[in-house]
UniProtKB/TrEMBL annotation:
UniProt keyword annotation of Transmembrane present: yes
Keyword Cytoplasm in record: no
Pfam families for the chain: TauE
Protein's UniProt name: Probable membrane transporter protein
Chief location: membrane
Record-level GO cellular component terms: plasma membrane
Organism phylogeny: Bacteria, Pseudomonadati, Pseudomonadota, Alphaproteobacteria, Sphingomonadales
Transmembrane region(s): 12-38, 44-70, 82-104, 110-130, 171-199, 205-228, 240-259, 271-289
Organism: Sphingobium algorifonticola
Amino acid sequence: MDIYLPIANLSVNALVIIGLGGIVGVLSGMFGVGGGFLTTPLLIFYGIPPTVAAASAATQVTGASVSGVFTHLSRKTVDIQMGWVMVVGGIIGALIGAGLFRLLQQLGQIDTVIAVLYVLMLGSIGSLMARESIQSLIAMRTGARPPARKRRHHPLVAALPMRWRFYRSGLYISPLAPLLLGVATGILTMLLGVGGGFIMVPAMLYLLGMTTQVVVGTSLFQILFVTMATTMVHSLTTKAVDLVLALLLLIGSVVGAQVGMRISMAARPEYLRIILAFIVLVIAIRMALGLGWRPDEIYTVQLQ
């Protein structure tokens, strides 16, 4: 069933796009990640222009985050004060990212930059996840217990001035730290269409020293509002958001997430993490190879 994407300016099989969204949804439900960092590469592999893939993936992440935010708010596992500081930083980062996006578009390098950033990002994250997963599996087989992590913020965070009390997180730190973290996430969201949870969650744990009970909920809270702002900025500046594409992805991801949650309840988390690490590394390698492959058509014609 072919359907025309007005912004991408091509016809696609709607069932394939829904299927891609379903795959990302299954991974999201299984591994507890937003899945946005996998949506854009999969769309690029299918033939969607990288600019449209990144902008539309951010829109899909917005829709997929709504239910999660309401669930965590009802459980009181969201540090709203910390979340709003990160949202402000994310909006600033989205505006900075919009300027970078337009500049790279004018230079004709945006597609290459998106691919290179994904190779570096997925390669590093996949390697770290694989190492941690292997260590967990070895510890599980030998019966050894990993040392407990001491919760404290990074010394660089402690050196920042103007401290606030974040009661829900149990922290007394400078708001500049979560603000800067939000800025970095906003730039990534604008350029790559990712929610940023896979970077935000470890940073909140190991840099800010937040409690694990509020990390996921606060991350989703920030992601929801920042991806909303990113979608608006993309619509007004780059005009690369394809709502038809985003809607198809959202349909698939909502259904897939329910399937993934059921699978996650029946499988050991150690095996799930190493599977996710393998998937991330395979996508990174595929994108790296794509940067060096000679395309079938060296030249393209773009109508103005």
